[in-house]
Amino acid sequence: MEIQINAKKSLMGLIKVPGDKSISHRAIMIGSIAEGITEIEGFLRGQDCLSTIECMRKLGVDIDLNEKLVKIKGKGLYLKESNSILDVGNSGTTLRLIMGILAGQNFETTLTGDESIKKRPMGRIIKPLSMMGADIKSRENNFAPIRIRGGKLKGINYKMPIASAQVKSCIMLASLYADKKTLIEEPYPSRNHSELMLNCFGADIKVDKNIISCYPVSKLYGQKISVPGDISSAAYFIVASSIVPGSDVTITGVNINPTRTGIIDVIQKMGGNIKISNRKIINNEPVADITVKTSSLKGIEISGEIIPRLIDEIPIIAVAAVFADGTTVIKNAEELKVKESNRIKTMTRELKKMGADIIETEDGMIINGTHCLSGAEVESYNDHRVAMSLSIAGIMAEGKTIIKNAECVDISYPGFYDTLNKL
Ligand SMILES: O=C(O)C1=C[C@@H](OP(=O)(O)O)[C@@H](O)[C@H](O)C1
Ligand SMILES: C=C(OP(=O)(O)O)C(=O)O
């Protein structure tokens, strides 16, 4: 499907973004291995999270999805062997996190996914899970399809070479099944939704800066979970409202967990006008309304410890940088190369087609703010974040922009174009 984007004059209004993708995945997986009923409100019905539901159903979990709620009849820690291959679709989170649960199961499971998933590195989870005692085979170079036979696991001490919440969560889920404590050390803090949610369900996870101590459990207890809005989805409208003249937009009920708010810090440092109000804590997670008004942005350097706190927002930050004064330098973001697409390459190539002054580097991009783009025909590479970022670029471009394969936005943000049209 192609989408045509036209320039927009100003964005005004009150919007809600869909439920957080990371929290939705975790609620399904943790609810599945808990005892009793878990009810999830605000669940993200994006394709990635629906893949997680399908995988857990194949492992014997009864999950009912209706208009308002997801209801899970938890099976407890031990699941049923699937009689077919698990298909994670486009979702790296599904594959990496579910492997942690499967490492504790005394049966064999085969997993695969789409063309993009088959190119994403899985050695990063195969290594620690193998150290814990899981038996894993994969296609050459640690790519999916992947087969795992779980069983009795050992607690390990693991120093993670990269800051990745998926790797951390995978080890954390496996540690529930281990014989003793597992210690995980992260180079920098990454999103901590697994830690917060596991503790809600009765696990014992202790965090001291970047060291996480995970204790085995005998059971987890079903919970009522309310999923807040996804800041990664809000990011498109945070940037759009900052750069489209005369805008004033409030996004309600967004998760503002500090491990995810790098986008707010960056836009504020660039000179953005962002106000946070109506703060609450729901299921251990901070939630608030975010109001954004147009402002003059300036280029900055984005590197180091903040990168994991905004990793999925770098494509849309690149768009903000085009409409800032001066140069924005993004460094230490090599992880972008192993997402749904190589986001350094794809964003550089497509923004260039629209006239941006942007250079691809080994670990990021350099963008000179020129304050103008022209409409063009651009490719999403079936990467939802690239499609949405280019759509926001399109509303600031002169002339029309065509986004090819734009339906991929449904992976994380079904209804994205409806919200954009409504504003
Ligand atoms: O744990 C999660 O839910 C996620 C972690 C991040 O990936 P990495 O752990 O690979 O950095 C992020 O890019 C992804 O969209 C979701
Ligand atoms: C990288 C992403 O997701 P995943 O790793 O789950 O495919 C994303 O949503 O941007």
From TrEMBL:
Which PROSITE patterns does the record cross-reference, listed alphabetically?
EPSP_SYNTHASE_1, EPSP_SYNTHASE_2
**Gene Ontology process terms (BP):** amino acid biosynthetic process; aromatic amino acid family biosynthetic process; chorismate biosynthetic process
Catalyzed reactions per annotation: 3-phosphoshikimate + phosphoenolpyruvate = 5-O-(1-carboxyvinyl)-3-phosphoshikimate + phosphate
Q: Indicate whether Amino-acid biosynthesis appears among the record's keywords.
A: yes
What general EC class does the enzyme of this chain belong to?
transferase
Q: Which InterPro entries match?
A: Enolpyruvate_Tfrase_dom, Enolpyruvate_Tfrase_sf, EPSP_synthase, EPSP_synthase_CS, RNA3'P_cycl/enolpyr_Trfase_a/b
Could you tell me which residue ranges the Enolpyruvate transferase domain spans? Answer: 6-420
One GO CC term on file: cytoplasm
Molecular function terms, GO-annotated? 3-phosphoshikimate 1-carboxyvinyltransferase activity
Query: Which residues does the annotation say bind phosphoenolpyruvate?
Result: 21, 92, 120, 166, 343, 385
Q: Which keywords describe this protein according to UniProt?
A: Amino-acid biosynthesis, Aromatic amino acid biosynthesis, Cytoplasm, Transferase
**Pathway annotation:** Metabolic intermediate biosynthesis; chorismate biosynthesis; chorismate from D-erythrose 4-phosphate and phosphoenolpyruvate: step 6/7
UniProt subcellular location: Cytoplasm
- UniProt-annotated binding residues for 3-phosphoshikimate: 21-22, 26, 164, 166, 312, 339
Superkingdom as given in the UniProt entry? Bacteria
**According to the UniProt entry, what is the EC number of this protein?**
2.5.1.19
The residues annotated as the active site are 312
Alphabetized CDD domains for the sequence: EPSP_synthase
List the NCBIfam families hit by this protein, alphabetically: aroA
Assembly and partners are described as: Monomer.
Q: What does this protein do?
A: Catalyzes the transfer of the enolpyruvyl moiety of phosphoenolpyruvate (PEP) to the 5-hydroxyl of shikimate-3-phosphate (S3P) to produce enolpyruvyl shikimate-3-phosphate and inorganic phosphate.
Q: Which family does it belong to?
A: Belongs to the EPSP synthase family.
Per its record, how is this protein called by name?
3-phosphoshikimate 1-carboxyvinyltransferase
The record lists the organism as Aceticella autotrophica
The gene name reads aroA
